[in-house]
Amino acid sequence: MANHQKTSRMQSNHRNRKKKQRIILCILIPLFSVALFAAVYIAHLFATVENEIDASYVEIDRPEPVEEVNPIDQPVSFLFLGIDNDEDRQLGSTRADSIIYATLNPHTHEMNMLSIPRDTYVPIMRNGSVVRWDRINAAYAVGEESVMVQTIEEWLDVPVHYYATFNFNAFLEIIDELGGIEMEVPVTITEMNSNDESGAIYLEEGIQNLDGEQALALARTRKLDDDVARGHRQQMIIEAIIQKALGFQSVPKYTAMAETVGSNMRTNMRLRDMSAVAQTGLNQSFTIESHVFEWTSFMERDMDLVRIIPDSFTTIQSALQNSLTQTETNNSSRYTEETNDSNTSSSSYNSEEASNSTDSVD
Q1: How far is CA 317 from CA 32, 118, 309, in A?
Q2: What are the structural domain ranges in the chain?
Q3: Which residues cross the membrane (predicted)?
Q4: What pTM was computed for the model?
Q5: What are phi and psi of 26, to 5 degrees?
């Protein structure tokens, strides 16, 4: 009898162990499957992204190389250029329709963005020499990203570590891949679409989720305000794209986004640079500080131009320079005292300077 009970207990324990093993396997097999799927997906994603980013890589000519930085632990700067041209439109001489300079500081957890009015009157720079005085957006027509970067660096006295030039196709498709972005439309507007069809986009006043075409219409419209405020709206749209793209729910969409970027962007960023920037954004919560110049308009050579008010220029320039030097223990800029006098003089574009400049291309 005792042997029988012992045998029964052994069989029962064996069945329990088998049952536990089955339960464990039922848990582990799906987990391993998910892990394997994730590994394959990540490998595919990495390969796709790397190929697409490599296809968009274009280095630029500089008189002097810019200092290399690691975005994970060093402040870094970007120049974002939007151009309204592609293989279908074939507009010929292209100018930059949107110009945004931005800094990202991993120590202060802050991103600074400045929209530069495209009609701002500045010296166009190439290889350390002034080509002519003109609208800042004309720098792209003179020498594309190379001249654009040199002009911005000389004018603002800040480095441009990375640039990224987008055409409007990228703008549309990235927002659509993200499932739209939430924006506040200040007033009800009717605007053309990306194919220049008048009245094709209708936006009602209020907060709403905008697709690519709708966001582009809001970014481009000139019916609401002036060119400077238009630049500020573009900053807000970029901020909304960044916040949406850094959300974990957007990770599965990175492959499609990479394909869009690869065919609609030029940049001097490698995948490792983008990964470092993305890692910084995912690891920390950033505040975004938007800057807008105060300005006045004037006429020169039958052109409507923008003159930045010197005090506004100096204040914003110092903020950008500070953002590139601040650390957790050092909140002052090494540039401020050294460049304060030259900043004021470089920002005063008066009529006498204008009259000394040479003719520009319309």
Answers
A1: 53, 17, 12
A2: 57-356
A3: 23-47
A4: 0.71
A5: -65, -30
